[in-house]
Specification:
heterodimer, A: about 675 residues, Rossmann fold, 8-stranded mixed β-sheet, B: alpha/beta, 9 helices
Amino acid sequence: MSLTFLNVLLWPLLGLAILPLLIHLFARARPPAVPFSSVAFIMRIVKRTQRIKRPRDWLLWLIRTAVVLLLIGFFLKPLWFAHPRLAAPHQAQTAVIVMDASASMAVMDGAQSRWATASAEASAILGGLGEGDRANIIWLRSRPDAVFPAPGPNLRFLRDQLRAAEVTHERGQPQEALRVALDMLRDEEGSKRLYIVSDFQTTNWQDVRVPTPPDVTVVTIPVGESLPDNTAIRRVHLDPPNPIAGEDISIYVDVANYSDRPVEAALDLTLGALRQRESLHMEPDEEQTIAFHVAALSAGSHPLSVQMDEDAFPADNRRFDVIRVRPALRVGVHGEALSGMIRSWTRALRATGWFTVEPWDGEWAPGQPAYDALLCAGGDTSTLAAAARYVREGGLLLWAPADGDDEAKLRAVTGNDWAWSWPQPLQAQQTTTESPFDLQVSERDDPVFTLFADGTQGDPARGTILERLLAPAPAESGLHTLLRYVDDVPALLHGRLGQGRLIWWNIPLHSGAGDWAEQLAFLPLLSELLLQYRARLPLEDARRSFEPGDTLTWRPEQDVLLADVQLERVGGDTKPIVRRETEDGPVFWSEPVAQTGIYRWSMYGTPVHDQAVNFPAVESDFRVMDPATVDAYWIPIARGHDSVALRAGLEIWKYLLIGVLLLSVCEAFVLWEGRRR
Amino acid sequence: MKSRYLQPDDIQRLERYAFTPRTLVDGHFAGRHRSHVAGPSTEFRDYRPYVPGDDTRQVDWRVYARTDRYYLRTHNQETNTVAHLVLDSSASMGFGGKTTKLDYASRFAAALAFLVVRGKDTVSLQCFDREIRTFIPPGSTPAHLQQLLRALDENEPRGETALAAALERSYPLLNRKGALVVCSDFFDDPGAIFTALNPYLHRGFEVHLYHILAPAELQLTDRGLATFVDMENRRRVIAHTRNIATAYTEAMEAHIRNLRDLARRRGVNYTLARTDRHHFQLFDQLVH
C-alpha cells in the first residue's frame, strides 16, 4: 500500500496540525476578571472538576488535530494505491492482457461460464485505461495469438475483439503466452503491466515459471471458484500400438472422475459396425482403465470412438482414435548381404508374409521413420550406437555379434545398462558333428515359447550346432536367457534397454554351422521374437490424436493437385486446406481445427487418411491453483475493476471529508456532554 | 458624635437595646451588673465596723474622728463588663459591593461599642488582617467611644486573613475577661480558629463569632465564564459560574455547618451575618 499526494506543494500546510495544540495551550479564554473575597472554595471545586475536564480537553485536542490533519490531507489530494508497484498516476501505461481462452474456461461457474467472467474482467481492465495508454490482448490457447502485433492505442477495437471472442476447446499454453506477452512489453515505454485473466487451472499452471523483468508488473485476476462435477475420457491406447492385420487388439480407455462423489457410467465403444459397452463405477478422484478387446482387423484405417454418459461438461466425454492396421511389420536388416545370418533371417521373414524386410543403412535418429525391429549381424561401433539409440526410444534390436567383437561393441549397444561384461573378445568355437553344441531352453515361461508348448511348432532347442561364439554367462537377473548351450554359454538372450529391448543372438545360421536353421522351430521362433518384442515407438505418421487448435497435415504418396484433395470432418463439413511444396513432395495443411472428431483426407474422392482430433485431457481437470501459490509469484487482484484504482489510485478526499464531518460531530458531542455535566 | 458607621438614626434606634452579656460579671455596677464581692474601687459603697483582720488602710479616719469608732469605707469593685471587639479587616472583607462586609462589620461594631459605653461598660477594639493593625484598649468614656469610632472610620480592608494568628496575638493584650466579639468572614481553617480561641474559652471569655458574608458569597452570581480574582492574594481561577455554582454553594454550606458545629461544641455563640440584612438583627443574639 502507498499514498501519493497530487498537491505536494501544500505539504507545508502540515505545520498547521500543531495549531490546535497551540490554541489549546495559549489561546485560552480570557473571561472578565471578577474580584472575589476568597477563591479557595472555587479553586477546590475547579481542581476537582479538572480531573474530568482534562481528559475531555485532550480528547478535544486530539479530535481537532485530527480534523486539521484530515483537512490538510483533503487539500493534498491523496491517492491510495493497493500496491506500490502498481502506482503510476502520471505515466502512460502499456497493458497486455493474457486472456485464457483454453477449454477449461468454458465450464459453468455458477450462473455464467468462467469465460464470461473473464471477459467482463478483461473489459473492465480495458475500461480502466486512459488516453495515451496502449494495450493488447493475447489469447491463451494452444498457440498464443495476439490481437495486435504490438500494443496499440485502439482500445475500442480490443473491446470489440473481446466481445466477439469465444472460448475454444484448445489446451492452454501459459508459458508460451506469457513469453509472448513479455516480449511485447520489453520495448514499451512507461508503466508496463501484464494482466493474466485465467482460471489458473492446476494442470496447466502448476509448472509455469516466467522470469518477470523488474519493470513489468504482473497482475493476476483469477476466475473460477466452484468445482463442477466432471468425468472425462483421458486417453485411448492400443495394444499392440501398431497392430498388423490379423492381430487381436486390446483398446484401453483411461477414464477419470474429477468430481468429489462416486460416479456410475457406461462406456460405449464404436469401431465400424462393432459396438461394445462397459459399465464402470468410479470413486471420487479416481482414474480407471477400461479394456475393450476386438478381433483381428483387416489392414487399413479403422476409426473408433469411445463415449461415456454426458455430464456437466460433455466436451470431454467422447474421444476418437484411428487404428491403422498394417499388412506387415517393417524390419530393417543390417550386415553383410551375403552372410549366412542375413540371408537366413531375410529368407525366413519374407516366408511368413508378415514382415517387410528392408536394408537398414546404419543411421537412426529420434523422429525418423522407425522400424518395428532392426536385425543386425556384426556391425561397427557407430552402427551399433545408432541401433542403441533406436532401442532406447522403444525399438527392438536383434544383434548377432561377430567373431572378435569385444567389450567395446557390447558397451556401444548397452552402454552401462547391462552389467554383463566380456573380459575377452568373443571367439568362435567349432566342434564336430559327433559332439555338437547342444541347446536347451532356459526360460520356458517366456512368451516366446508359448507357441511351442504343444510341440506342433517344433522344439527350439533341437538341431545340430557346430559353431558358436564363446561368451560368458550373464549374471544379471534382468537378462533373460531363452536358449543356452549345455555348458552355460548363452545362445539367445534378451533384456530391456531404455524403452526398448535387445535380443542377443549366438546361434550361427550359415551353412556348415549346423542344421538349427533348417529345423521346424526356427521360423516360428524368429517370428515370435519379433512379434512379441517389437518396437513400441511411434511409427511413421502414427500420430493418432490431434487437439483442437492443431493443424492437420497429410503428405500424399504421389503428386496431387489441391483440387483433388479434400479434408472433411466425419459427420461434418469440409475444411479449407492449403498445399505446400516441400523437398519431399507436396504437403497439405489444414487451418487449425476447432472441433473434435475424425477428420478424413480424401484424394479423388477416395478416403486415404484419417486423423482423430480429441479434447485435450489436461483441460478436463477443473481444479484451480491455490490462490496463495499464485500470489507467491504475482500480484493478485480480485476484480478487473480494481485495476483502475490500482493504476490511477483511489481518490480518498471524500473519505477524508467524511472523516472531518464525523469528527466534527464527535467534537460537538464532547462539548455538549461537557456542558451537560 | 460623628461617624460614618454610627448615624444619629442609629443612636436613636439603639435606645431600645442594652448590652448585657449572658455571663455573670464579677461585681456589680449601679444595679446593672451584679458583683460577687466588694473590693477596692474608687466608687464608695458603704461603711461597716472594723473587725480584726481588715485592712487598716480601709479605715475611714474622718468617721473615727467624729464618732471615735472604727469604720471601714467600702467601695464597689469594678464589676462593669468588657466587650472586646475583634474586627477582621483583611482584603476579603472589602467584598460585597456598595456595602462591603467590612462596612457591615464596622457598623455593627460601632453600634455595639455605643451600647457598651452607654451601659457604663468598657469596650476595646482590634482591627487585624494577618497582624493586629489597630488596638484600642478597653474604655468606657464617650471620648473613648469617639476614638474607637474614628478608628473604625479610618480602617480599610487590606492584607490577607489570618484569624487564628491574630487571635493568638491579641490574647496577651486582653487583660480582663469579658465578651469577645469576633467579626470576620472566617476564610481560615476552622480548626485553627477554634484552637486559637481555646485560651479565651479557658479563661472564661464569652465568645461571639459573627460570620459576615455577602449574599454573593453564599450563592454565586451567574457571571458565565469568569476569572475569579482573590482579593487577598490576587490568585486567579477561571471557571464557569454555572458549572461550579452548585458545588460552591454546597462547599460554603459545609464550611458554615462546620463552623457552627465547632462553635456549639465549644459553647461559642456563632451567628451568620448576611450583609443584606440589617446589622441590628445581630443584637438579638448579644444584647437585650
